[in-house]
Prior knowledge:
The chain is mostly helical. It has helices at residues 13-23, 25-30, 36-56, 72-101, 117-151, 158-176, 181-201, 206-225, 230-234. The longest helix has 35 residues, at 117-151.
Amino acid sequence: MDSQEKPKFRDSKMGLLLKILFVLLPPVFFLRSESPLLLLLGLFLSTLLAWGMLRLRNKTWNDVGFRKPENIGRLVLVTLVATTVLIPLSFVAKHVVMIITETAPNLDVFKVIQGNIPALMAGLVTAWIFGAFLEEFLFRGFLQNSLAELLSIKGCPRWIAWTGAVLVTSVLTGIGHYYQGITGMVVAGFIAMGFSVIYLMNRRNLWSCILSHGLYDTGAFLLVYGGVHLDQILFRS
């Protein structure tokens, strides 16, 4: 067989699968940790590994969406509208999941933010660095693109591979929020799916989900700071 017809191992399906598993090792190692700092460390290490795996394939973050948007106005509009819709939708999802599981998400780690401006500022900085940037680089940038390529089968429509990639990354995000309990995991997966939709709506430009993630977390943290329970307002009997 002509060597040009056979892809190098680094570009083969098996090579790609091993890269994905390797990148996921740090979060798995720290998954059951009760320390938020260790969870953030796992995310940081995974993002570094993802960057390394891209380099091995002669790719950069630009190749998976971290580039200047073609239409900044469209990106801003879609991002703002989608994020504005996603915030109340996530509280609806939380309400539905709580009815099914009969348990509330464990959000004790965020209680320190309520009425505490220094804690709020620290939380927002952490949310933008680790949530908006690192999570989106890892989940949308590396994992989703890699999974879509891995799941693609000759003759199969690309939307099927991308649907599978969105579902898998959403499940992985949910698992990563293990410390919030089953309800928190399901809701986190739902929110991640929303970021994926925003990413795809903006032609797989990472700035769209980075901004959406940061704005979502900012809104959520401000609600916690003010002691506002949006789900109780939406579903007041």
